[in-house]
TrEMBL record:
Stretches for region Disordered: 1-30
Keywords for this protein: Cell wall biogenesis/degradation, Glycoprotein, Glycosyltransferase, Golgi apparatus, Membrane, Transferase, Transmembrane, Transmembrane helix
EC number: 2.4.1.-
Topology in the lipid bilayer: Single-pass type II membrane protein
Biased segments, Polar residues type: 14-24
Name of protein: Fucosyltransferase
Amino acid sequence: MKRGKKSSDAGDPVTNSDTRTGSSELDAMRPNLSSMKSMGLLLAVLMAASVMFSLSVVLRDPPSDDVVETEAASRVILFRFHQAIDSDGGLSEKKEQLDDVLVHGFDKESCLSKYEASLYRKELPFKQSSYLDYRLKKYEDLHRRCGPFTRSYNLTLDKLKSRDRSDGEVSGCRYVIWLNSNDELGNRMLSLASAFLYALLTNRVLLVEPGVDMADLFCEPFPNTSWFLPLEFPLKSQFNGQSLLHDSGNSLFAYRHVVRDSSDQQKLFFCDESQVLLEETQWLILKTDSFFLPSLFSTSSFEQELEKIFPEKEMAFYFLGQYLFHPTNVVWGLITRYYHAYLARAEQKIGIYIGVSESGNDQFQHLVDQILACGTKHKLLPEVEKQRHLPSSQVLNRKSKAVFISSASPGYFESIRDVYWENPTVTGEIISVHKPSHKEFQKTQRNMESRRAWAEIYLLSCTDVLVGTSLWSSVMDVAHGLGGLKPWVLNKAENGTAYEPYCVRARSMEPCSQTTLFHSCKVKDE
Ligand SMILES: *[C@@H]1O[C@H](CO)[C@@H](O)[C@H](O)[C@H]1NC(C)=O
Ligand SMILES: *[C@@H]1O[C@H](CO)[C@@H](O)[C@H](O)[C@H]1NC(C)=O
Ligand SMILES: *[C@@H]1O[C@H](CO)[C@@H](O)[C@H](O)[C@H]1NC(C)=O
């Protein structure tokens, strides 16, 4: 564990080729470390852990025999983890929550983000309804019974292969297949969350076409089964052709587009009559590229159920997203290393998403000014002192804020960083400005770029305050939706010059950019 040679690449502060990244603290427990220093540390950890363990035995009701061992093991790991966190930012107060999660968890190492997310993201005071708990549990049971390669799945698949349209349900399993559009990651997450809610409402099993990167980015969300569509699925070769559309619409399978430029015909998907027709269909293949979740709320046959599942409609994506989207260990490594290197120590973390490219120098400086004006006006960022250059060693207030900038072009980041480098703040606060990616990462599908995009969205969702150039971005949508944040949104500048109000607070934490693009069934009036 050589830490001396830190890479200057901001996106990957500690270069590490281990694919189980994010678990470097766990690695310390392995016996293959050679240096004496590590051994000494290990010894100290084990001793401390045994003290903790004895304490836990004394202070608690005696645990039953079979959990003693796993509990002890969990505590050793926990102790190391806490040590790392204590020395690396004030997250220690969250210890107990993690304790609870880890002790009951199993197979933690396959997806660390599921168990550690609460250390990085603020938790909202809202809990999901017990009815949602119940529905998710029920869904998990269904998915386990009907998931890929189960007996029920094989039976249903055989029927499809032999085009056996006879009535009589063989297995009671029905599916909705989410096709991977290879669109921007944010859009895919929004449409996938919508498809999952649709599956939940219609008692279908959601299967995800993995595409090139989905399995690399997301852990399996449902226990002891897989949500990925098996490679050898028979209709797969037709997914991108027109023939599916012609063939479809029988009790075996149906193919539907739920996309932004839907024709009127396709909008009928949200009508009750269409839903009744689909009820018998075993395989529903869904091509969708956007957030159609709000349209489900306006489908009258789902209304009652949705009211029970989400007493606060505003939080549907927040709860579904937190349930579904867990970064794989390799992405979790990108997220946690970045977080600890640049963000953890700051008292407040401010995320800024800039979706505007740098073209046109005029507009460029205006936008930087507007972001700073918005920040200072609403006390998100301190003003700078341009006349008196008081060195910060003279200042008593040593609070710090970290500004995390997500934008495709580096110019905005450099300008904002320079403002806080070249001038002291009037409050004396120390402002550090960071930006992980210098690439147009959204444009390509190569795996590292998707990983970085996911890491960036996740890091934005971990901030305390989010500011965006507009709400019309799937990155912003997912970031504030997952983080449960109501972002500040810049007002559109007129003639390149912004006036007050420089920005306004969004009313909702739900993704909103795409909702107006969709229509409910009521639109069909011809
Ligand atoms: C389902 O089919 C697959 C291969 O087609 C087979 O490997 C698997 O064992 C089958 N599952 C059951 C439960 O029979
Ligand atoms: C998943 O499988 C493991 C081992 O096969 C088992 O111990 C565990 O209880 C299962 N979990 C659920 C939720 O069924
Ligand atoms: C923007 O420019 C147009 C024409 O150049 C002008 O009519 C308008 O008043 C300007 N708006 C503002 C807010 O300055």
